Amino acid sequence: MKVLSEIWLVRHGETEWSLSGAHTSRTDIPLTEQGKERAVTLKPYLARQDFSLVLTSPRQRAQETCKLAGMGDQAEVDANLAEWDYGIYEGRTTPEIRKEHPGWSVWNDPIPEGESLPQVAARAEKVISKAKAAGGKVLIFSHAHFLRILTACWMELPPSNGKSLALTTGSLSILGYERETPVLRLWNRSFETSL
């Protein structure tokens, strides 16, 4: 059996809603031109790697990033990689929500008709288990909040610690091990131009 060495994480490229700060989960919107350009910059770097498994969220912004980064032919869609379901807050920014609920935070407060943090963490644990079963290097295309929670789970921290791990669109991060300890090897790396 092949042992898992690393999990590579790619946050999808920029969309109009990620640019505005609107919470985007179920709404299936495309990448902006800048988002497409950023996704293409990942291609030469990812092409040099040998991935045992490539997974992508079912949302078009993640799948489009995956294709533009040259991994579309290898990718398997995994529903567990969808972004946190923001319920009634879908499409709204935190400042808009705070007008009605002062001090509101996605990390601390309930999301009516959406997912709880433990529910998202349970999905993240399923993805980690799938990656471990595949072994080798695994590549994942997903979303900011989900990847932040997955990373906290990987490092055996409470899922809420993901709030301290900001991720920009089109960025690459790498999870791995130091001996047997799960660690963060690279975080939030962006490629401005093709390598």
Automatic annotation (TrEMBL):
One of its GO terms (biological process) is regulation of phosphorelay signal transduction system. Substrate binds at R61, E83, W84, D85, Y86. It comes from the Bacteria. One of its GO terms (molecular function) is protein histidine phosphatase activity. Pfam families: His_Phos_1. InterPro entries: His_Pase_superF_clade-1, His_PPase_superfam, PGM_Phosphatase. The active site is at H12 (tele-phosphohistidine intermediate), E83 (proton donor/acceptor). This is Phosphoglycerate mutase.
